[in-house]
Amino acid sequence: VNHHFREEMTAIQTTIRTTIQTMSLFSHSASFLKTNADIKPPPRQLVEKASSSRCKLHRSQTGSRLKRCRQLHEVVVTLAKNKTDDDENHDSDDSDDSDDAFIQRLLLNNNNEEKNKSRYDCHSLEDFLDRKKLSKIDFNRRRFKVFSKFPNDNRLIFALSGELQTRNGFEGHTARFRQIPDFMYLTGISEPDYFLLSTCGPNEEDVKTVILCPRKTEQMKVWMGAGRSVQEIQETTMCDRCFYVDEIDDAMEYLNNNGSNSNSNSTEKNNDEGEETRSNNKGRRAFKIAHSTVVFVAPELDDVALKKRLQSNDAFVKSKTWGPSISANATSSNFRFDYVALPDKIARQRAIKTKEEIERIKRANDGSSDAHIAMWQFSKPNETYEFQLEAEFIAASTKRNLRELGYPCIVGSGKNAAILHYEENSALCKEKEIVLVDAGAECEGYTADITRCFPTDGKFTEDAKLLYNVVLDVQVDAIERYTNGALWADIARKAKLKTIEGLQKKLGVVNADADLNEALEAGISEVFLPHALGHYLGLQVHDVGPNSGTPLPVVLEVGNVITCEPGVYFVEALYEKALANEKQKKFLNRKNIERFAKVGGVRIEDNIWVTERGPVNLTRCPKTVEDVEAACASA
Length: 635
What we know:
Mean pLDDT is 82; it is low at 23-73, 75-95, 110-119 and 262-285. The strands form seven sheets. The protein has a six-stranded mixed sheet, sandwiched between helices. A three-stranded antiparallel sheet has the order 11-12-15. It has a three-stranded antiparallel sheet with strand order 16-19-20. Strand 19 (606-611) and strand 20 (614-617) form a beta hairpin. The protein has 24 helices and 20 strands. The protein is elongated. The chain has 635 residues and is α+β, with helices and mostly antiparallel strands.
């Protein structure tokens, strides 16, 4: 009962906080709307409805009333952005590079003319083996940008890394480990079983961070190697101190003493309430453990999940400070855990990429682009299987020091190209088919997300070429709209209209006399494009952003990296349903649908960086019909 009550209270707190933030912005809406006359305010009853429950605005429904609600939502988010731009501290770099110089250097082909005899050749392997070419990430500054958003009175930051998972029920044979993205973002640590503890506050002297490292036994060192030392961890993470996990009480004492090993210089005021005190150590405000201490936790868990994790660790169970708070029979606790605030603030900052992050996403894109091309050149019709193409992609990206994939490869030939998340990858690639490949590798946790379609025998059929160019036209048009301040809903709507226009004028799938807007209202675009236009990209393929619970943006901001992935798929279940629907079938031409259904489907996906100077495409993989065919022929 208590567990469910806590869950409900957490949900209520989140709803109240969101509602208050939203309602506080309405007072600014009048002046905003005066300068944006094209955005009309919705009726009062819809304002009240929107302010009472913002989450309803994310539901994908149709109808004029909900459209007005979405319109209001976009206005509110824009107001929020304008209101907080001046005092929002996003993680950014102090590089001497100007934006123009950085973009030029980023997009410059690494190969000289002698090496790069053909513009379809891959980068040399040497370009990827030297990690020193990547700018160093300042994790200390990155953490401060997040932790400074919390007050320094009785607050503590606590972040957990992931755990190893066994495979086949045998300890020691573990599944491939992938670090929790939030922990990777704060520390850069890619290994399991680490913890982060930190004080917080608006000033740099308020923030002291320690990393708790797993102490490896002799047997673990024999079987798994010694791993990195605490000194190496401290250097790479830029934390103030490192302790072993079984020294957690020493770490807490270190934080209590303002980052000093001794409190001999401290003059602390002890009282029953455990109130904050001041130390003589540079005049900083001291963190003091008390029954009212709030612990901000990442990743987003709950009491049951957190206690289960910590109860499995003897160091936390035996700890004088943590043991009483995580005990199953605890009647009191030193801490009150908050599972929402820290992940939310990290997510907002992760959505704005620094130059160092862009470099890693670009390298992941370059290596993944080369791997796509290598796969095209490996393919032979009626001989190559989908799983062999997958293997070729993995091999090519691994050779380029990109040893992890951001997600399982999707390799679908023929009609399999119409299966959105096809992962079986078992069919033979036949002649005159196209193969849709959605695959991306990671660089230091940052993933590429690239989709290309190529002909198995190096030449597109006429129908495949027509379908491909419809999708390419939509993508080229949409990318131009990836600008600072643009509303995602507007970009997506125009992409849907462009898709319907292509289906009508180039394929004849939509009847020539159909009104495009009426077809859009009838849901025709969703019949052939049943997914979003794009999503945030970063440490996760569907990365986090300021809109809780969704990887989709609302208002584009400088620093966002967002995919652009329009597509047209002929999914029998969808188009047959539409042809049987009274409102939809009048727009559709069955004969032409069945004609292009033989192609399967096409998706083209690039990774777009939003800058003050406009969109920058980080994906260099060929994508016009002519360039794809030329790359296939250059094997």
